[in-house]
Amino acid sequence: MLRRLAVAVTLGTVFLWQVIVAGTTTAWLILRPGVRPSPALVPMLYEGLSPTGAVVLACLVSLTPGTTAIDIDPGRRRLLLHVLDGRAAEEAIAEIRRRVERRLRVLFPEGWS
After folding, report:
1. Could you give the C-alpha distances from 48 to 54, 74, 91, 109, 110, in angstroms and in order?
2. Which of 7, 64, 92, 102 sits 20 to 30 Å CA-CA off 79?
3. 107, 53 in Cβ contact below 8 A?
4. What is the model's pTM?
5. Cα-to-chain-centroid distance, residue 36
């Protein structure tokens, strides 16, 4: 119980920090002169999450500036993401996995309802 609480607090803190960083990065991508962002739709496979965990993951991704979850496919355990700059899609997905998905697996593990 205490571990889950600690993970939830850490996730909340990490998420707030990511919103600030992503907001700044998104503003810079939009306002900077020269190279324009290249939006893209990219799939992101997830694992070890309950359906509720997948929905929370999609919500957190969508609340972070520059990325939006378009679709959740629970059968294939896949989110379809719209990213502001497709050239950095792999980095964005790796960041989501490292900072958010692994913590959500603790809070909403597969089989949890």
Report:
1. 9, 11, 21, 6, 5
2. 7
3. yes
4. 0.90
5. 22
Q: Using CA atoms, how far apart are residues 39 and 20, in angstroms rounded to an integer?
A: 20
Residue 84 CA, chain-centre distance (Å), reads 13
Each residue's pLDDT, cut to its tens digit, for the chain (113 residues) gives 788 999 999 999 999 999 999 999 999 988 888 888 899 999 999 999 999 999 999 999 999 999 999 999 999 999 999 999 899 899 999 999 999 999 999 999 998 86
CA dihedral angle for residue 64, residue 12, residue 97, residue 60, rounded to 10 degrees:
-40
Tokens of 12: 């909340």
Q: How far apart, in whole angstroms, are the C-alpha atoms of residue 6 and residue 37?
A: 37
Helices (H), 32-108: 51-63, 89-96, 102-107
List, in order, residues 6 or more apart from 72 with CB less than 8 Å away: 54, 55, 58, 78, 79
DSSP lists the bridge partners of residue 68 as: 82
